[in-house]
Recover the amino acids of this structure.
């Protein structure tokens, strides 16, 4: 038997989407089985001492369908799948088939629950994710086709955009008008009343809007295990990395920038209006947006690809701006 795995309170044993090579027996403590939802976790079950968990992947070798997090200091025994396979082969065929069938049904039930949860959440939203990409794509397409290029951007007759929105893509124009107002608050569009019922829309940053559509659509259709899941509380950290990363010189070999976290802690209130502590980077490190911290003589440093942060920060800032307006 292998040595027990020791987890401290709050520590993850595995995350939803991780590959799997073992099931586990809880020897001491308590483990919560959870699903990630937004920036929080929903607890599905609690594992008690003596119980087995993480066993579903043994039968189909699929990735983890949930998270396992220690609710208190815990000890766990790992049962590697490789060792268990030899014993499983000795079981009667009818029993193996029955166990596999039960496992497949559980997997399917989990998928349906997840779909229903997403549907329920989206029913209450004016701007569910795919509506965001659809409306932004309409603005991008129509302004590129019919917009007049001027110094500020692409100027478009509101009636033309309205007709495409409601007649071609069958989306309510009230949604489109509200989205344009949100985008205006982000400096991306401008909606002007010309009088006598006439309006015009100026798309100030067409390339950005097109890039956003491609980025968010790609993210929505990616396998969950391959996504970088940003939550709203990550934004101030990403903004700090972007601000100070732009001041740093990229390494000639790796092309990555390196920032001093002690400097950021001391100067962030002056530069950004809020303090970013040296200890605030755990989430971006865990999501592999940056490398691990490194200690040097003059402080703690963090290296990262500035191009990645340059791309994801403004797009996620826009996503959360739309979601905030959706909650009002």
């Amino acid at each position: 038997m292998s040595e027990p795995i020791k987890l401290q309170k709050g520590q993850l044993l595995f995350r939803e989407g991780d590959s799997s090579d073992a099931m586990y027996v809880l020897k001491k403590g308590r483990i919560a089985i959870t699903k990630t939802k937004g920036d929080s976790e929903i607890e599905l079950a609690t594992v008690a001492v003596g119980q087995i968990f993480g066993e579903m992947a043994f039968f189909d070798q699929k990735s983890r369908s949930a998270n396992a997090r220690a609710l208190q200091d815990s000890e766990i025994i790992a049962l590697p799948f490789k060792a268990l396979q030899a014993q499983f082969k000795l079981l009667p065929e009818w029993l193996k088939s029955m166990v596999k069938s039960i496992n497949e049904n559980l997997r399917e039930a989990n998928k349906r629950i997840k779909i229903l949860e997403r549907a329920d959440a989206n029913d209450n939203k004016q701007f569910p994710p795919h509506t965001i990409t659809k409306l932004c794509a309409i603005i991008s397409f129509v302004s590129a086709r019919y917009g007049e290029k001027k110094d500020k951007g692409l100027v478009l007759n509101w009636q033309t955009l309205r007709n495409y929105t409601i007649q071609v893509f069958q989306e309510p124009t009230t949604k489109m008008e509200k989205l344009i107002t949100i985008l205006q608050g982000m400096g991306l569009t401008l909606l002007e009343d010309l009088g006598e019922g006439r309006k015009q829309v100026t798309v100030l940053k067409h390339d950005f809007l097109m890039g956003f559509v491609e980025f968010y659509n790609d993210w929505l259709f990616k396998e969950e295990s391959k996504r970088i899941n940003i939550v709203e509380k990550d934004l101030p950290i990403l903004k700090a990395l972007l601000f100070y990363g732009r001041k740093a010189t990229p390494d000639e070999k790796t092309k990555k920038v390196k920032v001093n976290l002690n400097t950021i802690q001391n100067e962030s209130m002056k530069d950004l209006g809020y303090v970013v502590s040296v200890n605030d980077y755990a989430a971006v490190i865990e999501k592999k947006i940056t490398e691990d911290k490194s200690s040097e003589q003059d402080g703690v440093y963090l290296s990262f690809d500035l191009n990645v942060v340059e791309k994801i920060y403004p797009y996620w800032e826009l996503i959360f701006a739309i979601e905030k307006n959706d909650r009002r």
